[in-house]
Structure formats: C-alpha cells, structure tokens
C-alpha cells in the first residue's frame, strides 16, 4: 500500500511541478504510513498524506491554539465554519490543539485526482492563513 501511494504522490508532484514548483516527498517514520509533502516556497505548510481502508487523507496544519488571540477565538471558529462551504475540496478541522485544513479522496483516486486535491489544499491553506490572520497573534 505505501509503495503504491508513494508512487501516486510522486506522479502527482511531477504533474504539479509547473504550477507549484519543486515538490519533495518523505515518509514519516512510525506505525502509520504517513508521507510529508513539501512544496517549494510553501515549506511552512507541508501536507501530510496517509491512506486508510476507505480513503486517502491529506492534512495541512495551519496554526495552534496558542496562536489564536483569546478574545477572537469564538469569532475565529465562526469564520472557519462560514468559510468551510466556500473552500473547494477542503475543510477545516482540529486535532488536539492544532488547527488544520484537509481533503479526502477515494483510495482508488489516481495521480491526477491527487494532484488536483494537493493543489487545492495548498492554495486553500495559503488563503486560510490570509483570511484568518486577524484572529491570530
């Protein structure tokens, strides 16, 4: 499974090279197979990719709870809910104290589908940081 996924990620990177620039993929050590994708010029927003039984999950961490201005936290959460509909192929979420944006694909998704999701997720992460800057410190 991990070799096939890594191959699809690498192929997606080749297809995105003209749009996003250099694309580096590294496997993260651990029990769960996770790949870290870094895009040139967007290294601060790596995308983590893993595959479960029914989907491929792509996650980009945006900020932590301590980055949120306490007096603006409720407004941030409301803004995230409001923006969820307007963000194509991505959704906001949270794991522990880390806020993120993510996308999911079917396990059978090919390199073109993965490339489209990675492009959308990366662009949406940049847009989310800009849109939510007023709530962060």
Automatic annotation (TrEMBL):
- One Pfam family it belongs to: DUF2170
Q: Which domain of life is it from?
A: Bacteria
Q: Which InterPro entries match?
A: DUF2170
Q: What is the name attached to this protein's record?
A: DUF2170 family protein
What organism is recorded for this protein?
Chitiniphilus shinanonensis
């Amino acid at each position: 499974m991990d070799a096939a996924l890594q191959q699809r990620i690498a192929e997606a990177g080749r297809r995105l090279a003209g749009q996003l620039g250099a694309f580096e993929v590294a496997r993260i050590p651990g029990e769960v197979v996770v790949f870290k994708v870094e895009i040139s010029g967007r290294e601060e927003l790596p995308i983590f990719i893993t595959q479960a039984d029914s989907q491929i999950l792509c996650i980009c961490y945006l900020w932590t709870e301590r980055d949120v201005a306490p007096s603006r936290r409720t407004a941030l959460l409301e803004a995230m809910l409001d923006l969820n509909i307007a963000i194509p192929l991505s959704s906001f979420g949270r794991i522990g104290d880390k806020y993120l944006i993510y996308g999911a694909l079917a396990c059978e998704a090919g390199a073109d589908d993965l490339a489209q999701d990675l492009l959308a997720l990366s662009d949406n992460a940049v847009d989310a940081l800009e849109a939510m800057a007023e709530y962060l410190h």
